[in-house]
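Severity: low
Component: inverse-folding endpoint
Summary: output formatting inconsistent between runs
Steps to reproduce: submit the following structure tokens with default settings.
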């Protein structure tokens, strides 16, 4: 308590108790407000750190699949469309988008399956499901020896959507046991793929 206030309290004893009470009340409220502000700031910083850590984990190649365009050159790709059946995909076909073909053929009829060759540069996900703007998109793993990192994104071609930007949502259970959804951007019937969430 400042000296001038002590002098006032000594000169006017009846008001001394009230002055001291108000003085203590003021500082108690001030200290409480400062403590609450510090706590709110600390909680906000902790929340931001946790959010940033979650994003780092989502981007981590050890915790999630990470698909990119495949540059691997193959004449054909073996894959399993059903558990009991093995099929072959000729990479020279007009509906197969590889390093040799940037876009499906101009006379591609509606309803044709488009196959986009990609590589998983991240971890293998479990219980993987995908869609392209809400429509079915199937992901197959290549069975070729030494090329098991190659996958096929297969979706149905529609002429009205040709070259339009679309979003692919891939839901999976990561190796850490966390379920997540990653979003990619592609162009219908065009060899283009970019992950946008997490960026």
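Observed output (run 2 of 3):
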């Amino acid at each position: 308590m400042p000296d001038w206030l002590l002098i006032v309290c000594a000169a006017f004893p009846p008001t001394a108790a009230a002055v001291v009470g108000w003085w203590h009340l003021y500082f108690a409220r001030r200290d409480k407000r400062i403590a609450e502000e510090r706590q709110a700031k600390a909680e906000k910083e902790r929340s931001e750190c946790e959010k940033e850590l979650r994003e780092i984990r989502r981007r981590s190649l050890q915790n999630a699949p990470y698909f990119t365009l495949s540059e691997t050159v193959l004449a054909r790709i073996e894959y399993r469309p059903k558990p009991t059946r093995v099929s072959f995909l000729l990479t020279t076909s007009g509906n197969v988008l590889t390093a040799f073909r940037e876009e499906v053929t101009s006379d591609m009829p509606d309803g044709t399956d488009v196959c986009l060759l990609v590589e998983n540069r991240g971890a293998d996900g479990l219980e993987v499901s995908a869609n392209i703007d809400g429509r079915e998109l199937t992901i197959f793993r290549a069975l070729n020896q030494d090329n098991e990192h190659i996958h096929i994104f297969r979706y149905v071609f529609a002429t009205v959507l040709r070259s339009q930007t679309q979003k692919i949502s891939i839901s999976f259970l990561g190796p850490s046991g966390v379920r997540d959804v990653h979003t990619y951007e592609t162009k219908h019937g065009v060899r283009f793929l970019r992950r946008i969430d997490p960026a």
